[in-house]
Amino acid sequence: MTYDRYQHRSDQGRFPKGHEARAHYAHTVGEDGFYLLEQLAAPTTPAHLRELASVKTLTVIWAQQYERLTEPLPTDGAAGRSAVRWKELKELPRAATQLESPYDLDARYRTKQALHWLGYLVHYTETCDRHKPALITHVHTTPATVHDSQCTALIQDALVQRQLPPREHIVDAGYIDAELLVHSRREHAITLVGPPRPKAGWQTKVPGAYSHDQFFVDWERQQVRCPGGKWSLPWRERRDPSRDPWFAAHFRTQDCAACPARHLCTRSPHQARFLKLLPRAQHEALQTARATQATAAGQKRYARRAGIEGTISQSVRAFGARRSRYRGLPKTHLQHVLTAVAINVRRIIAWFDKVPKATTRTSHFAALAA
Ligand code: SF4
Description:
Layout: H1 2-6, H2 19-41, H3 47-50, H4 53-65, E1 66-74, E2 81-86, E3 108-112, E4 115-126, E5 136-143, H5 152-161, E6 168-170, H6 178-188, E7 191-193, E8 216-218, E9 223-225, E10 236-240, E11 243-250, H7 253-257, E12 274-277, H8 280-293, H9 296-303, H10 307-317, H11 329-352, H12 364-369
Parallel strand pairs: 6-7
Antiparallel strand pairs: 1-2, 3-4, 4-5, 8-9, 10-11, 11-12
The protein binds iron/sulfur cluster (SF4).
């Protein structure tokens, strides 16, 4: 029976149809796995077998997916009882730490809009000098679960280390936040350019409502003045272990209760308006970045980033970057680096051959409008 179950790779077989049959199958597989691990742990088993990488992987995956019970329980509606519990989705570890495939322990699962994939993410950095070829200066590969904002500082560190720091680092919204704006400037004298996260809160969407930027912040007094002219109580610092400190500025309940413009300010039936403030350097950097991005000059400066979309497209269409040819992060990174080298070589040859850079294609219909 056991041979029948495992003679084929899992991707070559078919899973049973229906929830009950599948749950039963999952329990059986769980029991088989635990049985195997128990045999490996027995004193009569040669020790080197326990040290095999595949055994360690099996141990981790089984701990993530199953629980060994002391008392057998009825299985999910299927016949029989099982001393193994197949964990529910909510009990699984975070995507960043969960092993998704025994064949590639670095690969992680990610969903981004309509796209789902198992593997990695690559971040290219390239020059964007209008009169020179756009050359890739850095390639950063991460497991798919790593957020873009976690890469910005690492990319800048690497560029500085190679003595290639840009004056301006133009990035999309995922790579920018208040802390990174300050960090780039302070650590490397790099101006991080991009659209910061839009302001939060319903007040930003309702015309006439009092959004965050209509409040005056007095950093010396540590108070905020609202558009109605009332001052908040002195703010209090809040600390969160995972991030920088922030400040909570509360207005007085009696001020807000008597305010004729309350409906433009807060939707809380009883509580007064409350503002969350970042440390001063971050707050001001964010305000400046938002203001700059809203100007025509800011938009023009940001438009230079568009070239990287062509590079990503080229790496996907011409070099198959959507598929990793190798297993593991180091080799996948090597694939990405070689792709970047190939793209650079093609661009340098085109430069010497005086081949003009491709421009964004326009449909015949859109050309008529121009
Ligand atoms: S509701 Fe409170 S914070 Fe808002 S404008 Fe009125 S007094 Fe100021």
